[in-house]
Design a protein that fits this description.
The chain has three domains: about 170 residues, 3-Layer(bba) Sandwich (FAD/NAD(P)-binding domain); about 110 residues, protoporphyrinogen ix oxidase, domain 3, CATH 1.10.3110; about 110 residues, Alpha-Beta Complex (Polyamine Oxidase, Chain A, domain 2). Helix content is about 40%, strand content about 25%. The strands form four sheets. Strands 1, 2, 10, 11, 12, 13 and 19 form a seven-stranded mixed β-sheet that branches. Strands 8-7-15-16-17-14-18 form a seven-stranded mixed β-sheet. A three-stranded antiparallel β-sheet has the order 5-9-6. By secondary structure, the chain is of the alpha/beta class. The protein is globular and about 80 Å long. The chain binds flavin-adenine dinucleotide (FAD).
């Protein structure tokens, strides 16, 4: 049987689900085909004995009004749990955890950074600009802020949170807000001051939040959209041109289904989109093939607070690459977000892998657990063993914005714009965060909507010309 749909979305992760949500706001019905038996993709949550562990994303960091609008109109505000006020955060320096200052003033007076680095920070407005699209994160930060800020502040964020290697990652794609400050205002300092004081330039205050029941609540709620037909357990096998659009072949168990559609949104990892497109858009498929991913694992450990002696007091720590530790960071989730652990217990989510530890996931679960526990014990002084352990492995964790990524992403976008009715909404373009996924899906939904109305207009014009000919 052939099914018809105006818009077909391949992949039911946050990218696909939020695309469908924005389309529904415009009254457009869409169909999502998701190969797994549940929606959410990387996003999922497990509640094990009261420990609520997220498999990938644990929080949304927002400062964008579109995301606020999305939250308000999707009904998700009722489930939102704001992150607790930031308390102590640490970075590893010379094998010891050191508290990170809360603001610029704190940085200038903290002994985390040498006097030379603090003076270099003050001279940041006088550094020269770069005009290269290929400058790495490491070169960009060394040039503007110095080696120590790179090692202790930027490297832990880029290598642990974004999973990229700062020596290889493209600055423009990995740190778009910082590079834009340099480009538009000449320096970070000038940009920050201008944005603070000039009316209309100040963005929303930054907020971080999760959801009651964990991040799975976000994707579950979006899956219930009445204008979206969600089909799980349905893997897309092929796409080919059809008379007025595209023919998609999918499979449920051993039965094949066909869909005819005018607009296709790929919300799948780059390699999946590439293999589907190879027969029809070879050049585009070859570009998609060049996107690399890094593996990441989260090792969640739950501890009884009795006997911890305040060892896990704070939000957690990040590890700079130069410290060469087995884990890249540790978030003390139950301190960050309420209702993540039973009373008197503490949940830590520790991560390994990324572009600087590309082979880390070759180790067995037992090795990863032992290494994580040994690191936590060494750095925080805890003595006891965890009462709960859970591992989530992602062999294709996050896309790497390495090397000529900026040029590659632009080439993919340009080829896609020339492919009638094909779009990409996925974390290998325009940012990995949930916030970026919601923003990118809005812009693609707008394009889909205007293309659909242009097609409807063309069809109506053709029908009216035909009717006039018949009448005359
Ligand atoms: C460990 C980790 C921690 C993270 N933490 C955060 C965080 O705290 N905050 C934050 O904002 N972001 C975080 N992220 C990033 C964020 O979770 C991801 O970028 C985002 O969830 C990716 O969503 P997506 O829809 O683009 O891709 P995916 O979630 O990968 O979805 C792709 C979907 O396509 C489906 N699919 C694949 N092939 C086919 C096919 N042939 N047919 C049909 N369906 C198919 C897959 O099954 C999957 O459901 C984290 C990521 C990781 C790995």
């Amino acid at each position: 049987m052939i099914r018809h749909t105006d818009v077909l979305i391949i992949g039911g992760g946050i990218s696909g689900l939020s695309s469908a949500w924005w389309l529904a706001q415009k009254g457009i019905r869409s169909t999502i085909l998701e190969q797994s038996y549940k929606t959410g993709g990387l996003i999922d949550t497990t509640n094990q004995d009261g420990y609520v562990t997220d498999h990938a994303a644990a929080m949304v960091l927002n400062f964008n009004s579109l995301v606020s609008k999305f939250m308000t109109h999707s009904g998700l505000l009722d489930y939102k749990i704001n992150r607790n006020k930031i308390s102590k955060r640490y970075v590893l320096k010379n094998s010891r955890l050191q508290q990170i200052p809360e603001n610029i003033r704190g940085i200038l007076f903290s002994d985390l950074f040498s006097l030379k680095t603090r003076l270099k920070l003050l001279s940041e407005p006088f550094r020269s600009r770069s005009h290269s699209d290929s400058e790495t994160v490491a070169d960009f930060i060394r040039r503007r802020l110095g080696q120590e800020i790179l090692d202790l502040a930027i490297d832990p964020y880029v290598s642990a949170v974004l999973a990229c290697d700062p020596e290889k990652a493209c600055a423009r794609s990995t740190l778009p807000r910082l590079t834009a400050l340099e480009k538009n205002f000449g320096s970070f300092t000038a940009g920050i001051i201008t944005k603070k004081f000039i009316p209309g330039k100040k963005g929303l205050p930054q907020e971080a939040f999760s959801f009651n029941g964990g991040m799975k609540t976000l994707t579950n709620m979006l899956s219930q959209n009445p204008l979206t037909d969600v089909h799980t357990g349905q893997q897309v096998l092929a796409i080919e041109p059809a008379k007025s659009g595209w023919r998609i072949t999918s499979k449920v168990n051993n039965t094949e289904y066909q869909y005819l559609t005018k607009q296709v949104i790929f919300s799948t990892p780059a390699n999946v989109s590439s293999s589907l497109l190879k027969p029809v858009k070879t050049e585009l498929a070859e570009l998609l093939d060049q996107i690399e991913y890094a593996p990441i694992a989260q090792i969640h450990m739950g501890f009884d607070k009795t006997g911890l002696n305040n060892s896990l007091d704070g939000n957690g720590f990040l590890v700079p690459s130069r410290e060469k530790m087995a884990i890249r960071g540790s978030l003390w989730m139950s301190n960050l977000v309420n209702h993540r652990a039973p009373e008197n217990k503490i949940l830590t989510s520790n991560f390994v892998g990324g572009g600087c530890q590309i082979n880390a996931l070759k180790s067995s679960d037992d090795v990863l657990i032992d290494q994580t526990l040994a690191t936590l014990q060494k750095l925080t002084g805890i003595k006891q063993s965890p009462e709960m352990v859970r591992i989530n492995r992602h062999h294709q964790g996050l896309p790497l914005y390495h090397g000529k990524y900026y040029q590659l992403s632009k080439a993919i976008e340009s080829q896609a714009s020339e492919s009638n009715g094909l779009y990409f909404v996925s974390n290998f373009l325009n940012g990995i965060s949930i916030r970026d996924r919601i923003i990118q899906s809005k812009s693609v939904a707008d394009k889909v909507c205007s293309n659909l109305s242009a097609q409807t207009h063309q069809t109506e014009s053709a029908v009216s010309v035909h009717a006039q000919r018949v009448m005359s």
